[in-house]
Amino acid sequence: MTLSQAQVALIKTSWGKLKSVGSKELGLLIFQRLLNQEPQVRGVFLNMGVPMGENEISLEYVRNHPKLLSHASKIGSAVASFANKFENPEELEALTTRLGKAHANSNVELQHFESMGPVILSVVGDQLELPTSSPVIEAWAEGYGVLKAGILKAMVAHTSNGS
Fold first, then answer.
1. CA 129/CA 8 separation, integer angstroms
2. What does the domain layout of the chain look like in residue ranges?
3. Which residues contact 145 (CB under 8 A, 6 or more apart)?
4. Cβ 48 vs Cβ 68: under 8 Å
C-alpha cells in the first residue's frame, strides 16, 4: 500500500496545523484516549502505572506519571515522524522497523494496532475540527494503514527471528 501524492500533501499540510498543538500534547491526547476508548490495552501498560479498575483516566493522571508521560511523548514523536517521512521510503521503513521491534520486545499484541488507528484519527479530526469523512482524515487513515503494515511486518519478523 502506498499513498498518492495528494494524500501525502494532505497529511503534510494538516501536520503543519497540528504542530501548533505540539507533538507531546498530541501524544498525550492520543494515549489518554486510547486508554479510555480501548481499556483492554491497559494491561500492556500496568508496569507504567496504568490503573485497571478506573473507568476514566484523565489527562492530568497521564501528565503526572513520568512513565506514562514519557510513553505519550514517544507516541507524539512517532506521529510527527510518521507525518514527515512519507516522501522518503527508506526513512519510513526505518521508523516502522524500529517501532515494530520495540513493540515486539514489549509483548504488544498485533491487534492493539487495530485499536490505535481509530484513536489517532479521532484525535487528529478533533484537533483539526474535521468530520471523519474529510479527505484529510481519509489520507491519515491510509497513512496509518501504511505505518501499521510496516510495524506489524517488523514485529512478526522480530518475533520469528527470536531477537
1. 19
2. 5-160
3. 1, 117
4. yes
| Separation CA 82–CA 26 (nearest Å) | 13
Per-residue cell: 139: 489520507
The pTM is what? 0.90
**Tens digit of each residue's pLDDT, the chain (163 residues):** 678 999 999 999 999 999 999 999 999 999 999 999 988 888 888 888 888 876 899 999 999 999 999 999 999 999 998 888 877 888 989 999 999 999 888 878 888 888 899 999 999 999 999 999 999 999 999 999 999 999 999 999 988 876 5
Q: CA 43 to CA 30: how far, in whole Å?
A: 17
Number of H-type helices and E-type strands within the chain:
7, 0
Considering the segment(s) 5-160 as one domain, its CATH architecture is Orthogonal Bundle (1.10)
Length of the chain: 163
Rounded Cα–Cα distance for residues 64 and 96 (Å): 29
The 10 Å Cβ neighbour count of residue 129 is 8
